[in-house]
Amino acid sequence: MSWDPPSPRVRELIRQGAEIALNARPEWLAEIDAATLAGEARRPIAGDPVLAAATRRTNRSNLLFWAAANVRAPGQPVAANDEAAPLAIARDLVRRGLDDSALDAYRVGEAVAARLWTQIACTLTTDTAELRELLDVSLRSIAAFVDATVASISARMRAERAALTRGTHAERRETVLGLLDGAQVKEPESRLGYPLDRSHTAAVVWTDDPDADPRQLDRAADLLAAAAGPGRPLSVIASAATRWVWVPGRPDPGELRVALERLPLVRVALGSPAPGLDGFRRSHLDALTTQRLLARLTSAQRLASFDEVELVALVTQDPAGADRFVSRTLGDLESAPAEVRAAVRAFVAEQCNASRAAARLFTHRNTLLRRLARADRLLPRPLAGNTVAVAAALEVVHWRG
């Protein structure tokens, strides 16, 4: 990775452009993120909130790494990005069972970054010769940097894959993946230390914070088991920031919610309780659906169950259509104070019984009635004639960020 150094004038232009890239516009980052997460080949990454977030972090890390290097030494070759973000995603890709083809996302990101860099370069000089030299050196630098970084991530993936073939965690994960795929697994209960002939509730326990202590995830898995009562849980390391958990029976959501207050960086998505091996699979898929819903809606909720969000998951499969449905159904109620929307949700949940709804919200019945009257004035159609649609729209508003 070498080339003739650029002239002093072009080195200065590259430095100026790199300083602009260090303070990249949000729309540039959004365009790179969208490109690296688009397409059928990258669906497994885009559909996984942890992998998608790790990809966005890696995009930012790569951009800042290359730009900072060119502020320090404009036009010089840039070594592979050896910071935490690209190394972490290598580990997580392998633990999700993905191969090196997932790294094609960085080639797509390179194309977008090169186009954006060309736009920056064209603002730095009107001299054709300078611009030609600037682009020749810098685009070669970007390509070589991405090549080196992808090679580094690929090597880390090979090492991680080798490590995963050894030890108890590897055997447990391999067994679980076989069961989830419907494969015939020999003596799965003895390999997992977990009985399958009972009712299970699956959970996805994860964190969005790349600096969170992984032990908090294990602690959350223990709290989840405690909220479910007696019986040994099953916990599998799905990635550095994710645990897949199964517990017997049904965890108490109130107890779990209180317990999670001690772990503010951890989030939990629960599946529905279901019996036997089929229930083991189905509850896990429900938990994944719940997690992906929270990510798709950028929800701030830290605990959600499939039972709570199943309707919202169906309604929001088409995000743009869901937004239109909410706006058309709620009108000005969509942007009304939270307590007004909460009054309507509670009223509908209590079968339109004002006394029970007031008790549910710990408020006076007259206060509730005033809020319901205000909601009726804000709605395009009266609540009494459109209860189901209003309730569905309010659930979408409640769960989205």
TrEMBL record:
Give the residue range of the signal peptide.
Answer: none
InterPro entries xref list: CdaR-like_regulators, CdaR_GGDEF, PucR_C-HTH_dom, PucR_C-HTH_sf
Q: Which intervals hold domain PucR C-terminal helix-turn-helix?
A: 343-393
Q: Does the keyword Phosphoprotein apply?
A: no
Q: Which residues form the CdaR GGDEF-like domain?
A: 186-292
Q: Which UniProt keywords apply?
A: DNA-binding
GO molecular function list: DNA binding
Indicate the family of this protein: Belongs to the CdaR family.
The name this protein carries in UniProt is: DNA-binding PucR family transcriptional regulator
